[in-house]
């Protein structure tokens, strides 16, 4: 038989920052989702084509900025 707890649950047992139950990749820093509470990944894995597109976009932006000034 389980004994019923007397009084409210101690929340610090479940929300301890040093808990090993959290994700191993989670360092406790960085933004978290307001809905799920999971850590938001800020770095995207990009392939070669996406990196090339970003490079071209940066060059075009620099060109237009030089024309404007």
UniProtKB/TrEMBL annotation:
Give residue spans, biased composition: Basic and acidic residues: 46-55
List every stretch annotated Disordered: 1-55
Indicate what this protein is called per its UniProt record. Uncharacterized protein
Q: Which organism is it from?
A: Acanthamoeba castellanii (strain ATCC 30010 / Neff)
Task: State the organism's lineage.
Answer: Eukaryota, Amoebozoa, Discosea, Longamoebia, Centramoebida
